[in-house]
């Protein structure tokens, strides 16, 4: 398997249900061929740098994954056919990736997300502690 990342832009007027449908279908293509999704990030609605198919905004989705080359070919074939996809870009990050490296990548993604949560929890804990001190 190879390590890839794909960013694609969907039409903004689709609605959350269709966004989810397209993302789920994309994930299914990757996992059905034996691939593994390392990180899926919905960047959401963003203004485009230039007009694409008469659209000035788009819904961005980023996916980091390990998959065989056939899965990427199928994914890009579907993107070319589907009018709801404005643009896509796939980048090969590494020629080969094993299960151990995939696990490390997933831990890294989880570690990056965890500090944000712990900072919020720490702020809430400090507020609670200062409130308790004031009441005593």
From TrEMBL:
Record protein name field: Small ribosomal subunit protein bS6
Biological processes per GO annotation: translation
NCBIfam families: S6
The keyword rRNA-binding belongs to this UniProt entry's keyword annotation: yes
CDD domains named in the record: bS6
Lineage, highest ranks first: Bacteria, Pseudomonadati, Thermodesulfobacteriota, Desulfobulbia, Desulfobulbales
Bias type Acidic residues, positions: 114-124
Any one GO cellular component localisation term in the record: ribonucleoprotein complex
Region (Disordered): 111-136
Source organism per UniProt: Desulfolithobacter dissulfuricans
UniProt entry keywords in alphabetical sequence: Ribonucleoprotein, Ribosomal protein, RNA-binding, rRNA-binding
InterPro entries recorded: Ribosomal_bS6, Ribosomal_bS6_CS, Ribosomal_bS6_sf, Ribosomal_S6_plastid/chlpt, Transl_elong_EF1B/ribsomal_bS6
Domain of life: Bacteria
Entries under Pfam families matching the protein: Ribosomal_S6 (PF01250)
Family assignment from sequence similarity: Belongs to the bacterial ribosomal protein bS6 family.
Cited function: Binds together with bS18 to 16S ribosomal RNA.
Molecular-function GO term, any one: small ribosomal subunit rRNA binding
